[in-house]
Fold:
Amino acid sequence: MAHYPLPESIHGQRLCETFGRYPWSFLLQNDGDRAWHTESRYPLKPRVLWAKWQDAATQIGVRFGHKTNYAMIDIDTGSEYLNSAKIADLTAALETMGIVRVVRVRSSFSGGLHLFLPLPELVNTFNLAVALKGTLQAAGFTVAEGQLEIFPNVKAFGKFWKGEFTEYQGHRLPLQPGSGSALLNESFQPVGATLERFWWTWDFAAQAQDLDLLLQALSTGKKNRRRHKRISTPLEQWRSDLETQIKDGWTDFGQTNHMLKQLGTYGRVFLGLEGSELADFIVERAIAAPGFDRWCQHQHEIHRKALCWARSLENYYFPASQGGTKGSPYPSEGVSTNGNQERSYDAQKRIWRAIELIESGIEAIPDTIGGWVDRLVELAKVSSRTLYKHPEWWHPRCKKPIDTSYLSLLEGENPTSDDQTQQTPQCPLLKLFLHLPPGMKSSPTENWHLKNLPQGERGGAGGEGGLSTGFEGV
Structure:
């Protein structure tokens, strides 16, 4: 619209530059009309757009062109997703593709919700549509009219050789006077309807987006739409690349989504994990990774983020032995993985190293079983549930044999099927327990997995993984 004069108002200019990039087939709804109609006789000029936006008797809507610097998600009144818990899950899913901030707007007096997704630069519209739809569907959302709609939509290709051209669906502009549209805060309470505040919120969100992760998601979405066979990365090279990225952990702020994605991909493809096991793996390895305590700014919500990544990756990747990627033929012949065994060895390795610290005298010896659990959980970076899966290393009443094949991992070797499990006559730490004060508490072996788990590890009220289900309504 650069060749048309802009309105005098600064806010009007910004409105036209953001939402008026494609002037054709705009939408109008006049006062008293229930239906919108498409005006295709002439293009929408900037000053006309601004005038109609200010007119309380007219509602106006626009469509997307080839490039865009925003997207929008529409959740109608009556949708199953119009509640705070579902919206929290939706925004968490968007983070997996680099959209970490959204602008919340009440669409009209009807009470629907528009989530605007501002971007720091122009991107290909169709690739963005594909990436958004794929991300939300992978997270379990149903993209459908009346429930959850994505703008830009994944439009059908017109038969250009016949002169056919299909356009993206249009959406109403935000905050029009008389429409009931209003800017909402994080608690979904109205905080005004001025463009000044809207643009301030918009700019803050745009600058916060993870552009690298977003561009990667757009590229992946584009490849997934291709009909022909895609070039696949050799499996072992893929695995090596993931291990390289995971090894150094966090080295700066803003790397959480990248790290969780690498961990989740590794756990899903090469360890064959799924569901809560995949989420637990992501959490445990993230907490144990270098730089987590210093650089990760999402430690308070790491379980929720891990669960969201697990859901998305589980719907996108297969385990390596089943082909690697849905729709992408990673070689499966001759590939065998034992993810549970590898994960067990990794946990035992960290538990043993924690024990070595305590044995060396560097760490104080706890005087209760609960104290041991808390200290080992902290030092080994494992959950208490994982700790109780391997009581043979630390619990004085355990008489379970120790799998000594695991010890080869301490030397950087891989265990083989020839390694034999050996019976150890006593817990390696029994000599430490003998010096503890009388009356040290311990629970019967058969009750360890129930009695000693923290409340958050048992499930129960609050949803999967102890997460709050929130409240209905926004």
Notes: The CA atoms of residues 52 and 346 lie 63 Å apart. Confidence is low (pLDDT under 50) at residues 227-231, 323-338, 406-426, 434-474.
